[in-house]
Amino acid sequence: MRNIIGYGGGKSGGGSSTPTEAPDSLHSVAYARVLDFVSEGEIEGFVNGLQSVYLEGTPLANADGTLNFQNVAVDYRSGTQDQDAIPGFPSVENETAVGVELTATTPWVRAVTNTQLSAVRVQLSVPALSRADTSSGNINGYRVEYAIDLAVDGGALQQVLASAFDGKTTSKYARTHRIELPRAKTGWAIRVRRITPNANSGTVADVTRIESIAEVIDARLRYPNSALVGLRIDARQFSNVPTRSYHLRGRIIRVPSNYDPATRTYTGLWDGTFKTAYSNNPAWIFYDLVLHQRYGLGERVSAAMIDRWSLYQIGQYCDELVPDGRGGQEPRFTCNCFLQQRNDAYAVLQDLAGVFRGMAYWAASNVVAVADMPSTASYLFHSGNVIDGRFTYVGSARRARKTVSLVSWNDPADQYRAKVEHVEDGEGIARYGIQQTEVTAFGCTSQGQAHRVGQWILLTSRLETETVTFKVALDAAVVMPGSIIEVADPARAGRANGGRVRSADGRTVVLDRTVLVAEGDILLVNLPDGTAQRRTVSRVDGQSLTVSADWSQPVQPEAVWSVERADLKTQLFRVVSVTEDDGLTFEISALEYNPSKFSAIDNGTRIEARPVSVLPPSVQPAPTDVKLATYSVVDQGIAITTMMIEWQAAASAVAYTVEWRRDNGEWVTAGRTGSQSLEVRNIYAGTYVARVRAINALDVASLPAYSAETRLNGKTSPPPVVGTLIATAIVFGIRLDWAFPTGPLDVERTELWWSKTPNRASATALGDFAFPANTHTLMGLAAGAGFYFWARLVDKSGNVGAWYPSGNGVLGMSSDQASDILSYMKGQIGKTQLAGDLLSAVDSIAPPMAGSDEDFAGDGTVYAGIVSTQSVLEEAGRAMAQQVTTMQATVAQSSAAVQVAQQAVAEQGGRLAAMYTIKTQIAANGRTYLAGIGVGVENDAGVIESQVLIAADRFAVLHPNGNSVLMPFVVQGGQVFMNSAFIADGTITSAKIGDSIQSSNFVAGQTGWRLSKSGLFENNGSGVGGRRVDTSALTQIFDGNGVLRVRMGVW
User: Fold this and answer.
1) Which of 69, 80, 672, 820 sits at a 20 to 30 Å CA gap from 755?
2) What are the pLDDT digits (tens) for 898-914?
3) Which helix (DSSP H) or strand (DSSP E) does residue 284 occupy?
4) pTM confidence score
5) Cα–Cα distance between 434 and 860 in angstroms, integer?
6) Would you tell me which CATH number, out of the four given (3.30.2350.10, 3.20.20.450, 3.90.850.10, 2.40.30.180), belongs to the domain 466-603?
7) Cα angle value 993/995/996 (rounded, 5°)
8) Cis before residue 490, ω within 30 degrees of 0?
9) What is the pLDDT at residue 857?
C-alpha cells in the first residue's frame, strides 16, 4: 500500500474534470487494383487518352487536362503477341463482396473449390472502434481480437492467424490478410472467428465486418493478344470498386492494300492483297471475323473460301458519303460493336451482314456475302427458258407492310446508351394505317444511319411486296442468292416481249417472232458466259434487229432475248434461294427488286414506278371535273327537263358508272357508259350531286369523283301515291296486291317495305317491282305471323313518291285457320315419296321364299318367312341404294307382316332423298290394317324438307310412373287428347272449355281472373286495384279492402 500525503487548506469541496476524447489511432488507405480485359488484340487504343476512361460514368480527365479523380493510375496494353506485363499486377485476383457482420457467437465460413489458387485475401473492417468511460465521459480506444482458421480437403480447421483491432477510430477502418493455401485436391474451408465477445453496449463501438474475400493466383502474366487496361484506384474516393468503361478504337484488321480507312478512300485498282489497319467498315469486319483463327471461323474457313471481290464492292458502298440529316455527311454504314458472349457462328455473321443490309450464305464450299444495294441484272428469264413457262407470284400479307419503325441505336454523345429513332412512311400510313415494327440496328452509333435503317425497312416492305417462283433446267441455273435477275413474263406484261434467238451474225440478231419494237428500244440477250447483256436497237427489219454496239461474246442460237420499250420494261427480282429439285431441274425463288428505293433512302428522292405491264392497272384512277347542267325540250306538249352529267376522262378507263341523288336522298344509278357524259330525263327541281366511277378493262372500279352541289330546275311534283295496298292471308304466307292511280304515269317501279311494328321508322325494304307488276306473294312464314306493309312509287327519273299508307302500315297475317293449314299440309305430305312408301301395303312373301330354296318354313296354308333384300342401282345421272327386310306369318287367308326399309337416292337433276320406314300390317277378313313410322329428308325441285310421319289409328305417349302408366298425349280417331300442357303462344279457332279457364296467377278474392262453366266470372285487379265478380244474374265490384262498392242485377 502506498501512502498519499497531501497538503491543503481547510476548505472542503473541489472542481470537476472535462471529459476528453483520444485521437483516432487507426487509419486505413486502401487501393483497388483492377485489370480489365477489354478486347481481343491488337486494337487501336483509346480514342482520346485519359478522357476515354470513365469511372462511374465520369471521364477520368477533362478536355483541358484536369483530372476528375485523384490518385488514379492507368496502364494499357493494346493486345500484341509480345506485349509486356502491366506492373503492379503480379497476381490474378477475383474479389467477391461479402458484407456480413462477424460476431463472437457466429463465425464466418467460406468454402473455396478452385484448386489452382495460391492464396486468399480476407478483408475485415470496423465501422468505428471506441469505448466511453461511464464515470469520466472520456472516449478511448478498444481492442477486438479475432482469428482465421483453415481446413484442407475437408480436414480439421486449424488456426493460421490471430490478430486484433486495437485502437480508436470514428470512421471505417479496413485491413486485409493474405492466407497462403497449401496444395489441396478438393479445396479449402476458411473460417473467421471473433474472439472478443460483443459488448452489446451503447458505450462501446465494436462492430466487426467481413468485407470481401479475393481468390489469388500468383503469376506475372503478359496476356498476349489481349487488350488490357490496369487501374489503381484510391479507395477514399469510392465506397466500392467503381464501374469502368472505355472509349476505344477496336481491332486492327485486314483491309485492302489500296484503302485508307481514315479517309475512306481507295487508290487505283486493287490487286487483292491486304494490309492491317483499324477500320469500322462492316465489310472488312465481316472478313476478319470469318477468317480469324481464335475468335472466328479461321480454323474451318480459309481466305480462298471467301469472295473478297464481292466484299470489296460492298465495302466501297459502305464508305460512300451520304447526308447525315444534320447538314453534314457521313459514311453510309459503319459498325461499332462489342461482342461480349459466344454465339452461333451463322447468327453472328447474319447480324454483321445485316449492318450493310445483306446476308451471308454457304455455297460451293465458299462463304458468300451479298448486300441489298444497287446492282445490274445478271440473267434474263422468259417463259422460253422456264419449265412449262410458268411464273408463280405471291404477294406479302397486308400486316407485313410496316409503316412505322422504331430503330434502337447507341448514342455516343450519351456514353453509347440505347436510343430509339422513330421513322414513318407517310404514303404507307395513308394506304395501310399504322403498322409498327421495332428493330435493333446492330453496331449502329449514328442517328442518321439508324434513320436509314428504318427507311429501308419501311420502303422495302411497301415497294418490294411480291415473290416469284419458277423452275428451270440445269443450263439456266446460273444465278446465286443475292443476284439480280430480269423476268420477261408475257402473261403479266400484256404482250409478247421475249423468246429465243433464231440466228445471229455479229450485231444482227434474228428473233423467233415478231414483236413491237422500234429504233432506240433495248434488246436484252443471254450470252454464253451466263450473263445478260443489253444493246440499243439501231435498225428493225421484220424479225431481224441490228444493235448499235458489238456484243462482248457472239450471240448463240436459242439464246433467250427480250425487248424493252419506254412503256414496257422487264421485271426485276433479287434471288432469294436456288433449290435443287431432282438433279436436273432447279426451283428459283426471288423477291421483287426496286432500285429507285436506294436514292430515296439516302437522299429522299422520288420513287419512280417501273412500267412492267401494259395491262390496265389493278388500281384505277378516278375521273375528274364532274359537272351538272340541264336543258329542256317539249315532247307531245309536255316540257321535259333533262340533267346532263359530264366529266373528264381517266387514264386506262374503258367505261364509267354514274349515280346521282337529289336533296341528300338515296343514290340513284343512272347507268354505265363508255362516253364522258350521261343524261337523266324528267328530273325534279332540287339540289343535285353526281358521282362517277371509272372502270378499266379488268373491270376494276376507281373511287368515285363527285360533282359540286348544283341547284337544278326540273319537275316539281313527285310520282302519285299508290291507289290501294291489300294484304290477304294464305297458308304460311301473305299475298300483297296494290293498284296504281288513274291517268298518265311515269312510273318505273314500286317499292314495298315491311316491319313487325306499325311504325315505318323500323321498316326495311322488301323489294322493288317493275311497273306494271301489282302483286307479290310472301311465302315461308309461320302460321299466324303478322307484318305491316307500305308501298310507294318511283318514276323513271328516280324521283320517289309518298308512302301508302302515310301512317301505320297495312297489317297482313298468314292464315291462322287450323282447317286450312291441315288441309294444305295433307296435300303437301301426300306428295312426298316417304308418305307413299309408308302408306303402301307390305308385299306378301310366297311360301317358296319363306326360308331357303330347299327347306320351307311352312306349306301353302300355314307358313312363315323372313326375307332381306339389298339392291344398288347406278345409271346415267342416278344412284340408289336400298335395303328391305320383311317378316311375315300366314295362316290361310290371314297374315301379319313387319317391314323395315331404308333407301338413299341421288339424281343429277338435284333430287335427293333419304328415307327410313318401319311398317306393321295385318290382313284379315279381306281388309288390310297398317301402322308405321317414316323418317326422311327429300329435296324435290329445290325444296328441301325433312319430316317424321306416323300412320296409326291411335298414337300415344306413355309415361311409366311406378306401377301405373300415365298417358299425357294421345291421338285417337283424328282427335288429340292432352292431359296437361303449357303453351307459350297459341292460336285457337274454336275452343270448348270443359270446366273453367283462368289466369296462371289466380287466387280467389285476390289476384288474376277465372271463368267457370257455371257462369261465374271473377276478375281481380293487380295490387290493391279491387276485383269484380259476375254471375248470370248479378255483378258485384269490391274495392282494394274487400268492401262491396257496387252491386247490379238480381239478388
Assistant:
1) 820
2) 888 888 888 877 788 88
3) helix 282-291
4) 0.55
5) 91
6) 2.40.30.180
7) 75
8) no
9) 52
